[in-house]
HTH marR-type domain-containing protein (Neobacillus rhizosphaerae), 280 residues
Amino acid sequence: MFEESLEMIELELSILIRRSTSISSNRKIGNLDRAAYLLLRRIASKGAAGVKVLAGEFKLDVSTISRQAAALEQKGYLYRIPDPLDGRAYTLQITELGTMELNEFKQARLVKIKEMLKDWPDEERKVFGQLLKKFNQTFI
Amino acid sequence: MFEESLEMIELELSILIRRSTSISSNRKIGNLDRAAYLLLRRIASKGAAGVKVLAGEFKLDVSTISRQAAALEQKGYLYRIPDPLDGRAYTLQITELGTMELNEFKQARLVKIKEMLKDWPDEERKVFGQLLKKFNQTFI
DNA sequence: AAAAAATAGTTGTATAATACAATCATATAC
DNA sequence: GTATATGATTGTATTATACAACTATTTTTT
């Protein structure tokens, strides 16, 4: 039972990752990239932060955050607030347009997931969300 | 409750995909690419098949399967069986070396997942696997 | 105070996994 | 026999990421 569950999880995770990252099943929604979505969302929910801090939270290279931020800024979704204490640094803050776009993107995703889970019992949706969260917290 | 679960699922899926596809958390194990793993595994479990069939099953472009197959063949994990009825086609079959490598890769992954889930109750592991499988089946 | 070292962020380059387009050889339809 | 379709491969591009190199600024050391 124990090994069987692990094997199922291992296989289904592989399939999930593959499916979710496939371009044909993960077409861009609106003007937001999938990659930059979490960045914008983080800033919206926890407030402005610098490139280094964000890279640390996401466990991504600073260059990746820098590029995502630049792209979002170019689109008008983020703006920079110079750090008054450090001439090299700034914090990234979301714009009103960014907030709107974020909500749109998020809604579109929710609609999609809602459709996928329309036949699920409420309890299973709840448990799935909780287990996903728990699983994500095992990543260090 | 309903919308809350959807939002949690939506967010946690985003995080999971990001974490799982990040290079730093998904370093290659052995000589098998993550991408080609499912291909090799499919052939091992269901038998030889052609490029077109496999592309259809995986909902990937034939060029992607073709490239993955070529890479696996180059490594000695797959070999080609010409289709006696069609001079253009062949089926891909796994080699003994491929089988061994597949099992090694799979074991390495299982060890990793086992470590991640070491504090989980058995029941949750079981449910997680089942819900993942169920979720994967909603992708069309 | 000046020099050396560290650091915040950007840019260059490369990698991995994928798709669309173009091509070639073979098979099928007319 | 000719035209069309098809299985697979190759060319090119895209996306998201990391490592390396760089610049300007800050901090530490001398």
Residues 18, 21-24, 50-52, 62-63, 65-67, 70, 83, 86-90 of chain A lie near DNA strand C (CB under 10 Å from a C1'). The longest strand of chain A covers residues 78-82. Residues 36 and 71 of chain A are 9 Å apart (CA to CA).
